[in-house]
Amino acid sequence: MSIPDIKKMTIQERLTTMEHIWDSLCHEDREPESPEWHETILAERKKIMDSPDAKFLTIEQLRERYR
Questions:
Q1: Do the beta carbons of residue 65 and residue 57 sit within 8 Å?
Q2: Less packed terminus of the chain by CB within 10 Å, N or C?
Q3: Cα–Cα distance measured from residue 31 to residue 25, given in angstroms and rounded to the nearest whole number
Q4: What span, in angstroms and rounded, lies between the C-alpha atoms of 54 and 65?
Q5: Residues 47, 53, 59, 65: is their CA dihedral positive or negative?
Q6: Can you tell me whether residue 30 is helix, strand or coil?
Q7: For residue 51, what pLDDT band results from cuts at 50, 70 and 90?
Q8: Where would I find the beta strands (DSSP E) of 11-59?
């Protein structure tokens, strides 16, 4: 199925299709492998978090920031 074919579907049809796909993935016997670049990104983020200059926000502070 191509993007133009998908765009011909109604929003409800697309959402239903996504739900079916997600459900089928949730019931697989094995987990999909993460791409190698995920490990690089996670390592970079951990390095930032472990830095003495790291600043953390509470959930409430984060919500305030984006209101």
A1: yes
A2: C
A3: 9
A4: 17
A5: negative
A6: coil
A7: very high
A8: none
Q: Which amino acid is at 24?
A: S
* SS3 at position 37: helix
Number of residues that this document lists for the chain: 67
**Single-letter amino acid, residue 52:** P
Q: What percent of the chain has pLDDT over 70?
A: 100
Separation CA 5–CA 58 (nearest Å): 43
- Domain coordinates in residue numbering, the chain: 1-32
DSSP for the chain, please give it.
--HHHHHHS-HHHHHHHHHHHHHHHHT-SSPPPPPHHHHHHHHHHHHHHHSTT-----HHHHHHHT-
